[in-house]
Specification:
eight-stranded mixed β-sheet, 18 helices, 20 strands
Length: about 500
């Protein structure tokens, strides 16, 4: 066993991480903020943190120590926002078990069925302690995997999970049977479920500042580690030593922070990713105050009556060119035709919404509006993803020069959302004074994954998946790209194959 492992093993046997004994090869095994997290045995503990401060690393140590010394023999269930991070955590667990205890644990990697879905599962099993062999299981971020699970739960990068509300709903009952919940994450907007839980816990710990706790608020131990806290506790010194750079005290600390800051795209990213400050703008890509100047009482509201929709277009478009966006849905989502008209400013002139209508009714509606003699639809952009593909093929075949099929790839979605955001910011679009339309715009989020990729997601509700807002975006896209090809996909946008 190495000198570092021998020191750590003695440390574990002593049951503490404090004091000068916490040294291996002249370096602390963990930094002070990591020690505080490891020693916290609260039923719920939450860490809002900077990127790459070793949070999962110390969490893995805590999981191993408790299960190898017999102080905790419950199973442990872990999830992160992506599978690579989950595998990295399991390798940390494997490393600590081997280096500290000489236990060679195998990671069994496979898939398990949860309802109709297969979920990737990585599992390792500890040696028997007091008649039990506790397991550590890392799963993908699908909330269904946490249903009916007993034991301790660890959720990494909770703010970046696709279905955070459902994940919390599935995971939170574990604490009712003695399980502990550990949440570690960078922020992803003020309205994220992660930030909501922090605000609830703060009302318990500091009601004078945050107000009295509500009956539904959780109680949790809170840890906050921004990049400045981590560097003050020795993070830069540790990184300089590991990478072979000369550490010069405060000068190197400032240099390290400056390097982190230069790598950020802007100050909002720096504040959220490294200073642990939730970004109000990141909560919604269309906060309610943003489209308010674009709202007009003269714009027609959504209707399910095709004749009313046609009449709205004729009344409000007059002689202006009409641009049509079509989002295709049938059961869970809705079929939407969103019409805008105008040259410099695109005004909403009609919104048709069908729910649970058959495809024949959808095609009939499209044919009716596309064959209007006046005002004439200059261009249609129609959803060709999934169930919309066949309908889009039929319509683009009939209206060859005026219709395009749009496949919803990540790049195309980003183009649709950012184009709409630009038009809203420049106030070159007029929207109806309708709370559902504004709420659907507000539901769009700009999400940065733990891998650094950016995507745009909308929250699903009982009314659909922001179908009206998507129709608006497709309409604006039709107006913005009058000479675009008939079939828009990743290659058409120059984003590769």
């Amino acid at each position: 066993m190495s000198a570092r492992a021998a020191a750590a093993s003695a440390l574990v046997a002593a049951g503490t991480l404090a004091g000068s004994a916490a040294q291996a090869n002249g370096e602390p095994l963990f930094l002070p903020y990591q020690i505080r997290w490891i020693e916290d045995d609260s039923r719920i503990a939450i860490m809002e943190k900077s990127r790459r401060v070793g949070a999962d690393f110390c969490e893995a140590f805590r999981v191993v120590r408790e299960r190898m010394n017999g102080s905790r023999n419950l199973d442990y269930w872990y999830t992160s926002a992506d599978e690579d991070a989950a595998l990295e955590f399991m390798r940390y667990v494997q490393l600590f078990a081997l280096e500290l205890y000489g236990a060679a644990l195998e990671i069994v990697d496979g898939h398990e069925a949860f309802g109709k879905e297969d979920i990737r599962v990585m599992r390792l099993t500890f040696p028997e302690v007091d008649g039990r062999r506790p397991r550590v299981t890392a799963m993908s971020s699908n909330p269904k995997g946490f249903r009916s699970k007993g034991g301790d739960i660890g959720i990494s990068e909770f703010a970046h999970h696709d279905h955070a509300d459902e994940l919390w709903k599935a995971a939170s009952p574990a604490r009712l049977w003695g399980g502990r919940i550990r949440i570690l994450s960078t922020h992803n907007g003020e309205s994220s479920k992660f930030n909501q839980l922090i605000e609830q816990a703060r009302r318990h710990t500091d009601p004078d500042t945050y107000g009295d706790a509500r009956p539904s608020d959780i109680e949790a131990s809170l840890h906050r580690v921004d990049i400045h806290d981590a560097v003050a506790d020795g993070l830069a010194r540790r990184i300089f030593n590991v990478t072979g750079r000369e550490y010069l005290g405060d000068e190197s600390d400032r240099q390290f922070i400056d390097e982190c800051r230069r790598d950020c795209a802007d100050e909002l990213v720096w504040a959220e990713e490294f200073e642990a400050k939730p970004n109000a703008e990141a909560g919604s890509y269309f906060p309610y105050e943003l489209p308010r100047p674009c709202v007009s009482a003269t714009c027609p509201r959504p209707t399910s009556d095709l004749d009313r929709f046609i009449a709205d277009i004729i009344e409000h478009a007059k002689n202006d060119p009409v641009f049509l966006g079509g989002d295709v849905g049938r059961i869970n989502d809705r079929f939407v035709l969103y019409a805008t008209a105008g040259r410099k400013t695109r005004s909403t002139v009609g919104i048709l919404v069908y729910h649970r209508q058959d495809f024949q009714a959808m095609e009939h509606a499209l044919n009716r509006v596309m064959t209007l003699p006046s005002p004439r639809v200059r261009r249609l952009s129609l959803d060709a993803t999934g169930i919309g593909m066949q309908l889009a093929e039929r319509i683009t075949r009939r209206f060859r020069t005026r219709a395009e099929a749009v496949m919803f790839t990540a790049a195309v979605k980003a183009d649709l959302v950012t184009t709409c955001r630009r038009d809203v910011e420049e106030q070159t679009v007029l929207l109806p004074d309708d709370p559902k339309v504004l709420a659907e715009l507000n539901s769009f989020r700009k999400v940065t994954t733990s891998a650094g990729n950016v995507r745009f997601d909308a929250e699903r509700s009982r009314d659909g998946h922001a179908d009206i807002a998507t129709g608006l975006m497709l309409s604006l896209h039709a107006a913005d790209r009058p000479s675009s090809p008939r079939f828009l996909n990743l290659k058409a946008m120059g984003a590769g194959g």
